[in-house]
Specification:
With 235 residues, this protein is an alpha/beta fold. The chain has one domain: TIM Barrel (Alpha-Beta Barrel), CATH 3.20.20.150. 41% of the residues lie in helices and 14% in strands. Helix 4 links the parallel strand 3 and strand 4. Helix 3 crosses helix 4, helix 4 packs across helix 5 and helix 6 packs across helix 7. InterPro entries: HyI-like, Sugar_Epim/Isomerase, Xyl_isomerase-like_sf, Xyl_isomerase-like_TIM-brl. Keywords: Isomerase.
């Protein structure tokens, strides 16, 4: 809970949190309120504390569990005023997994409360071995197949660089469907400016595309986070 205070002290107006479900919503609301913060993104599904997978939108046969957990995610998002829910694909491969993800997302989009956008995000093999959604082109194809206005792409510069070798080109290619942006440098998910991502080019691309969503830092600071925030001024 201290991280909300740290984010407020650092000057942020918004935060995201992978899995806030273990915290009482009222306590999170209080922490956000005292720091003037907005929670803008959470992940779904809630974690399985029995050791199960972190995400199963692309796992055939998981439809009932997927729908149940998405309802829980929707309730938590509404309680906190969250506008974006990242729906995790889980492990899998092949056409059956793709079809399952399209079907699950179609139902989730239809059930999503007004004002909530769902996103999907490709993850690189180095961070998530076996993860089904591991390519931005495949993600765009799934979004097109679902065809719902409340489904978009979540762009992460670290994953884009690791998967395709040029995060800027990937952002430019898919800018029209990107609804949330996260920053990390590659390799190693280090702070921006410590790896191979062209952040000057990426920020120029964000401005050229007139991106109006949130930009989040998602990286391992390797020390005090406050000392790694020069990228904020460059945006």
């Amino acid at each position: 809970m201290d991280r909300f205070d740290a984010a407020g002290a650092a000057g942020f107006a918004a935060v995201e949190m992978l899995f806030p479900y273990e915290l009482p919503a009222r306590e999170v609301q209080q922490a956000l309120g005292r720091n003037g913060l907005r929670m803008v993104l959470i992940n779904a599904p809630p974690p399985n504390y029995t050791g199960g997978e972190r995400g199963f939108a692309a796992v055939p046969g998981s439809e009932a569990r997927f729908d149940h957990d998405m309802r829980r995610a929707f309730r938590y998002a509404q309680a906190l005023g969250v506008g974006v829910i990242h729906v995790m694909a889980g492990e899998g491969a092949g056409e059956e997994a793709r079809a399952a993800m399209i079907d699950n997302l179609t139902r989730a989009c239809a059930a999503a409360p007004k004002g909530i956008t769902l996103t999907i995000e490709p993850l690189c093999a180095e961070s998530a071995p076996g993860y089904f959604l591991n390519d931005y082109n495949a993600a765009a194809e799934i979004i097109a197949a679902v065809g719902a206005p409340d489904l978009g792409l979540q762009f992460d510069s670290y994953h884009a660089q690791m998967i395709h070798g040029d995060a800027v080109a990937i952002y430019e290619k898919f800018a029209d469907i990107i609804r949330h942006v996260q920053l990390g440098d590659a390799p190693g998910r280090v702070p921006p400016g410590q790896g191979s991502v062209d952040f000057a080019g990426l920020f120029a691309a964000l401005r050229a595309a007139k991106y109006r969503g949130y930009v989040a830092g998602e990286y391992t600071p390797g020390g005090a986070t406050e000392k790694t925030l020069d990228w904020v001024k460059a945006l």
